[in-house]
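Practice problem: predict the structure.
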Amino acid sequence: MTGDPADWDNQLVPNLDFYAADADWSAVVEAVFELGLFRVFESDSEPGCELREFRAAAEAAAAPRGRHLELFVVGSGPEPTVSRIDLLAEAPGDPTFRYCCEGWGLVQLHYGGPFGARELRWSHTNHNSEKRAAAWAATVPRLGDPAAWDWPAVSRASGRLNRVIRRMAVSRIGAHPVLPHAGRLIAAAGLRHEYGTGVHATASHG
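Answer:
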C-alpha cells in the first residue's frame, strides 16, 4: 500500500529490515521471481509514464523505478489499484502526472543501499496487517474492502520471502541480516554505528 494520507505510520506487519548493496538487490529481486508467488509492480511510475509491471528479475532490477516495488501475491485479492497523482510542472513541457500502485494486501520491497560513502541504509519488506487495513479503510475508500483480501495468503508469501532473504545473509548487525555485498561494503567503509535507518561510519551526535 502506498500513497496518501501522508501521516500514515510505518507500523506495518510483518517487516524485515536488512542490509543490501550492489548485486545483493538483483539477487533479492531474482528470489522474488523464483518463488513464483508474486506479480511485481513499481511502486511509482516515472513522471508522465504508465505504471509498469515487471515480467523478469533483470527487467525490474535495472529499471529506473525498480528499487521500490509492490508485490501482489497471486490470488490473494483484488487487482492492484493504479492511482494517478497530478504533478506541478516546473517548466513548459514537464510531465504533469505519475501513477502509484496501491492495494491493502500488497507487499512492499524497497532498496535502501549506500547513502554517500559513510552510510548504508536498510532495505526492507513490509505489508499491512488485516487489523490495520480495516482501521484505515474508511479513510481510503478507493482501495475497497480489506476483507476482500486473503490475509493468511499475504502473510505466508511475505514470510517465505523474508526467510529467503535471511538465508542469503552472511552476518547480522543487531536484528538486521547483512547480505554479501553489503557485508563487504560495511567492512571497506568502516561502517560500525547503527542508528536511524542504517549503519554509519561515525557515531550519532544525538
